[in-house]
């Protein structure tokens, strides 16, 4: 066998891995609490904490409990919360009109959290799927999701959410033109400082199942969402979608789901140099939790490694249901 120094020509790459201090010195990416966005689920009532079977460790929270969760998040250093609604069926209809009621649970929760914890950021989704009786993100007419009528409702919902105290509007519906229309409406209503994080590249993924259980739409969905979400096979289309949303006024862009689409994260960051985020969706969370519960993986280490992967792929932050646990781990370490 040849001498190793002759083989490597003096380039021994293990030199900087030999000790913790040297590994820290050359670490290329780092996860911090500032990278974490915490999605939470809301439910009607008081003092309600409803465990979600498909998402171990995650519960739906009544508004008062969501306020307590926001206080905990603030204490942990988490700077941004994203609330999602579980809406009673009797309040759902074909157009999702309850999203425009000024007493809906999203608006009440935003106002309550902002009043109790004014320092924390709030990001709301103006998509209609929690509010429609068919589970789609838009108005359903004769089996078709009607784009322009949907955008009109999204625009009005976004203004209401901003007025309630939302700091970022983040529409997840993937309707054409909604970013520009929302930007125009926010500016016209005196909300020019409200940012928009676009779900610029939301894919027609199989990873959303537990989320749909969490918001109560899993048994409602008629058909699928392939006519408005991106085909998982397409990467160039994702670039065009992001480019369009940026042109319309998006301040930040998001990739959803996260881990199966790290290549998209990297392409978006390299192409646009925009603040880029990923959503580690419910299916990703639940798979890690299930494997950990069975002893197949070290759940804590896989949790942390999965989030570091987003940073390596170019993300500036991650929406993750692990956020409080990660923040606690980071504080300890």
Summary?
With 333 residues, the chain is an alpha/beta fold. It has 12 helices and 12 strands. It is globular, with a radius of gyration of 21 Å.
First-residue to last-residue Cα separation? 43 Å
Q: Measured on Cα atoms, how large is the radius of gyration? A: 21 Å
> If helices are DSSP runs of H or I spanning 4 or more residues, what is the number of helices?
12
Second rung of CATH, namely the architecture = Alpha-Beta Barrel
| Average pLDDT, all residues | 96
Structural class: alpha/beta
Q: Which of globular, elongated, flat, extended, rod-shaped describes the shape?
A: globular
Number of domains: 1
What is the ordering of alpha helices and beta strands?
A: HHEEEHEHEEEHEHEHHEHEHHEH
User: What is the tally of beta strands?
Assistant: 12
What composes the largest sheet?
8 strands, parallel, barrel
- CATH homologous superfamily designation: Aldolase class I
Oligomer: single chain
| CATH hierarchy, class | Alpha Beta
| Low-pLDDT ranges | none
Helix content: 25-40%
Strand order of the largest sheet: 1-4-5-8-9-10-11-12
Family: Belongs to the ALAD family.
Protein name: Delta-aminolevulinic acid dehydratase
EC number: 4.2.1.24
Organism: Ahrensia kielensis
Notes on the protein architecture:
With 333 residues, this protein is α/β, with parallel strands linked by helices. The chain has one domain (33-332): Alpha-Beta Barrel (TIM Barrel), CATH 3.20.20.70. It has twelve helices and twelve strands. The chain has an eight-stranded parallel β-barrel, surrounded by seven helices. A two-stranded antiparallel sheet has the order 6-7. Helix 4 (105-116) links the parallel strand 4 and strand 5 (121-124). Helix 10 runs antiparallel to helix 11 (299-312). The longest helix has 18 residues, at 147-164. It is globular. The model has no long low-confidence stretch (mean pLDDT 96). It comes from Ahrensia kielensis.
